[in-house]
Amino acid sequence: MTPVRRLVTFVDLDEQADDDTISVSARHEVEFADGSRALILNDRGWAESGPPNMWAHRSAQDIVSTARMVVGPDEPPTGVSYEQMEADHWAQLAEALRRQEVVVDALELKQLPHDVLLSERLLARLGHDPRNVGLG
């Protein structure tokens, strides 16, 4: 099996996004050394509404930071430590991959680099030229 290289979260505009509403989806994947990928989470995203032209108050880095938070690990509920919540999170991601016949240890997943990639539509909405944006 090809070794895993990194985690990648792809963020794109949702259809309901408009000037006064930020609405995006996030797809979380693992990328292998050969460039192929396996889906881990496809049910993430967030929405914000507020003052007119919400997008003028958001940067690409804001979106990247929120995307990293949205794909986890989540904040623990009362009575559960952050360490346990984090361990459970990585174990769940490893199990999601195992169901796809990708065997990777939870600790290995945790140590992978995590890149967040914004779609060209999203970058354009944020006022960035997609050809000239460098995000980590």
Would you write up a description of this structure?
The protein has 136 residues and is α+β, with helices and mostly antiparallel strands. 29% of the residues lie in helices and 29% in strands. It has one domain (4-129). A 4-stranded mixed β-sheet has the order 3-2-1-4. Strand 2 and strand 3 (37-49) form a beta hairpin. The model has no long low-confidence stretch (mean pLDDT 89).
What's this model, at a glance?
Helices cover 29% and strands 29% of the residues. With 136 residues, the chain is α+β, with helices and mostly antiparallel strands. It has one domain.
Return the structural class.
alpha+beta
Strand order of the largest sheet: 3-2-1-4
Distance between the termini: 27 Å
Largest sheet: 4 strands, mixed
CA radius of gyration: 16 Å
Query: What's the helix-strand series?
Result: EEEHHHEH
Number of helices: 4
Helical amount among residues, as a percent range?
A: 25-40%
- How much strand content do the residues show? 25-35%
Q: Based on CA inertia axes, which overall geometry fits?
A: globular
Poorly predicted regions:
none
What's the quaternary structure here? single chain
Total individual domains: 1
What is the total tally of β strands?
4
Question: How confident is the prediction overall: mean pLDDT?
Answer: 89
Key traits:
single chain; alpha+beta; four-stranded mixed sheet; 4 helices; globular
Please outline the helices and strands.
Blueprint lengths: L3 E10 L7 E12 L4 E13 L10 H11 L11 H17 L7 H6 L2 E5 L1 H6 L11
Parallel strand pairs: 1-4
Antiparallel strand pairs: 1-2, 2-3
